[in-house]
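re: ur question from yesterday

yeah so i grabbed the chain u mentioned. its 147 aa long if i counted rite. heres the sequnce exactly as i have it in my notes:
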Amino acid sequence: MITRARAFIGAYWHDCRANAAVEFALLLPFLLFLIAGTIDLGLGFREKVKLQSALNSGMQHVMQTGGSDLATSRQVVAYSLGAASSAAIEIDAFCRCASKAVGCSTHCASGLDRFVGGTVSMPYRTAIFDQDMSISANFEVYLGEVE
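ran it thru and got these structure tokens back, copy pasting raw so excuse formatting
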């Protein structure tokens, strides 16, 4: 009986006809995992680009108006994202000292540089791996020196 089993196994031990199929079956789960991860990453990147594009539109409005109408700039960003978006939009004006001296005040006094900064963030759930995360976009515009 044992010699018969050895002969049966020995007959197939050197047979290489199905090696490619076995290797493919072993590697297929890893390949599918890599493809799914790439797709998931691409979908997340698309959402990030959408956020950045909407913020860029709002900051374009800031540059055209000289930062005088930030409420409308927020609306431009919200409109670019769409009505169903759950994004948090922050657009604020602020000042900095050009020299970054120690005694620099935070109010926009004469001689300070004026900026408008915008941030858009939203929760994001990955499509394939079902992970919760947050994506955001930032932009800062220099508007000139306060006179």
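noticed a couple things. The chain has one domain: 17-145. also The chain has a mean pLDDT of 87.
anyway ttyl
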